[in-house]
């Protein structure tokens, strides 16, 4: 049986890959005009660069808000994981707490190392939440 940390890593990779696919498709569809236009002017490159920055920001927002819908991201649903309140395992934390716990993913290398050492992420300690298996 896969450990909870292993299941969590797989769930995060599923979410991350899905977000990357959506962001790449949007960049390709919206940037098509700039990437393949015959006039490679500085303005075209500037607009393509701005589009890349906006979509990167939108990707970060999706990562932060990924658990806000019904308390579970797509990856957590597939891996049968759920976010619970550490004071009451029967209770789902508020949307704001689920969003706040993902803000620390901006510093994912540090968050990842701490999760491997302690079993919980910084955001979970901060918001007093746990990820549990719901087989």
Keywords:
two-stranded antiparallel ribbon; elongated; 135 residues; mainly alpha
Structural account:
It is a single chain. With 135 residues, this protein is mainly alpha-helical. The chain has one domain. It is 64% helix and 7% strand. The chain contains six helices and two strands, in the order H-H-H-E-H-H-H-E. A two-stranded antiparallel ribbon has the order 1-2. Helix 1 runs antiparallel to helix 2. It is elongated and about 60 Å long. The mean pLDDT is 86.
Order of helices and strands: HHHEHHHE
Helix vs. strand class? mainly alpha
Counted up, domains total 1
For the biggest sheet, the summary is: 2 strands, antiparallel
Helix content: 55-70%
**Gyration radius from CA atoms, angstroms:** 18 Å
Note the overall shape: elongated
The end-to-end distance, rounded to whole angstroms, is 12 Å
Q: Determine the strand fraction and express it as a percent band.
A: 5-15%
Average pLDDT over all residues = 86
Q: Biggest sheet, strands in spatial order?
A: 1-2
Overall strand count: 2
**H/I helix tally:** 6
Unreliable stretches covering 5 or more consecutive residues: none
